[in-house]
Amino acid sequence: MRIRRNLSNLAGAVMLAVATTAGGLAGTSSPPSAPEGAPLRDPPQLVSHNGHLRTRLVVERRQVDVAGRKLWALTYNGRFMPPTLRIRPGDRVELAMENRLEPFTNLHVHGLHVSPRGHSDNVLIHLRPGQTFRYSYRFPDNLAPGTYWYHSHAHPISGPQVAGGMSGVIVVNGLKRYLPPGLRGIKERVIALKDFQVQGDAVKTKDLHISAPTNRTVNGQLNPAIHIRPGEIQLWRLANVSANIYYKVHLQGQRFQVIAHDANPVDRIWPADSLLLAAGARFDVLVRGGPPGRTQLQTLPYSTGPAGNNFPQATLATMVSEGAPVHPEALPTTFAPTVDLSHAAVAARRTIVFSENTAGTKYYINGKQFDMNRVDIRSKLNTVEEWTVRNDSNEEHSFHVHTNDFQLMSINGRRHQGHGWQDTASVLPKGQIVVRIRFADYTGKTVLHCHILNHEDAGMMAVLEIVK
User: Fold this and answer.
1) pLDDT tens-digit readout, 186-198
2) Which of 11, 27, 34, 112 is most deeply packed, by most CB within 10 A?
3) Spatial separation of the C-alpha atoms in residues 205 and 163, rounded to whole Å
4) Spelled out in words, what is the top-level CATH class assigned to the domain 178-321?
5) Nearest one of 193, 183, 178, 189 to 145, comparing CA atoms
6) Measured between alpha carbons, how far is 441 from 167 in angstroms, rounded to an integer?
7) Statement: 45-174 belongs to CATH 2.60.40.420
8) Residue 329 — pLDDT band, cuts 50, 70, 90?
9) Residues 6+ positions from 365 with CB-CB distance below 8 Å
């Protein structure tokens, strides 16, 4: 058995990594499912008004309530489950981030189509202890509505910082406008999937093993109760905001109706018995309350390959259907307009290869480990490229690109119809995907990487520069 460890160390909050590894092979387990807990609580919200959100995030290590326990964690604004940022297309966001951690951190707004330069979504900067950095984002009017998230992207310690608690949700309003009028007032639920391991009196950040037993929470709660009335339709925002693990989400006796994938509205609502949320992925889904009773929201067993991890089944939450029945509304089939790149002119074709050493301690893209001072791919603004992403390893990887989303064209040679775009896609062991990506609106240096953060920290990231 091969166990990979993240070579990052914690000192005070988080110290520089001295070695990097990633999570092990078989033997992954979880604590027994917790009894049904308190009603699900939505995180507090920071909401834009009149096209503007001005706010502040303080990053610090604090003792907070984590799933009913007092533990030291890495927090935004003193919370393990920090505020949800809720904005609209075309908004401007001014976010002052004060760092009280060693040795540094930064912030990434995952999936958002926004400039990667300067004080915007620039993940190549480091905020030192005591420094306040003023992020400034100007989002386009055509920003896709749906569920995004924010987290540390501080290389090579993004894994321990996110595992320690540094992740939260972003919601861009607008999805409901594609629903029939009778469904536009439905209740929304943030379902942020966030795990934590424990070491003593703290959320673990040192020597993280992906295969170690972990506590899977929803909005920082263990097995919360999600209340719904029989026949009622709710919008659930499923978001994997964990550092490394996968979720195969299933609602017993129900089918999810998918309306957006990675904050990209779909052209047709499609049903799913289960949804794979690879590291970094999100789905916006409609859920209908069943007959009175209790239904488990589960993550099913999932293996990422012979050199990867075996994630066990666990209960995430309990859906409680009770109260006066609601007359069932009919769901539409078509949903939102999408752009199809199938017939687009392709300016360049590239092959991107994910690989790792036999010990599972170093990870590569095209045979190279990450170097922020090296440009690995240079692409031209206002063009479409086709990338073949090949996985030469024996474990699954979660492919993610910043700044621009992509259309997944095929998986292992078979045409794929995802009904829209996405920003994250799993690449199976010894497999490959083909994606098409359009570079729009923004120039500058950004990155692509595996979103299993232990792998990213261990070198599986590359610099993409978009030029005129």
Assistant:
1) 999 999 999 999 9
2) 112
3) 6
4) mainly beta
5) 178
6) 27
7) yes
8) confident
9) 352, 353, 354, 376, 448, 449, 460, 461, 462
